[in-house]
Amino acid sequence: MAITPPKLPKEIQSGEQLKQLRITKGWSQAYLADQIGRSLSWVKMVETGKRNIQPQDQYCHPICISN
Known about the structure:
By secondary structure, this protein is mainly α. The chain has one domain: lambda repressor-like DNA-binding domains (434 Repressor (Amino-terminal Domain)). It has helices spanning 15-25, 29-36, 40-47. The longest helix has 11 residues, at 15-25. It is globular and about 25 Å long.
């Protein structure tokens, strides 16, 4: 049985919000990409508004929602 990772908090629905989460935690784009299993280019495109966060993108490694 597959374990579903936790979702990003509901307030993280845009690239700007993702960027603020990343900055608040003191992470680089590369570190965030590695932690959530996405490419660096994916993080950059989301943060700059060139790509939207889709429902399938809402799942995030637990490190994203931990203190």
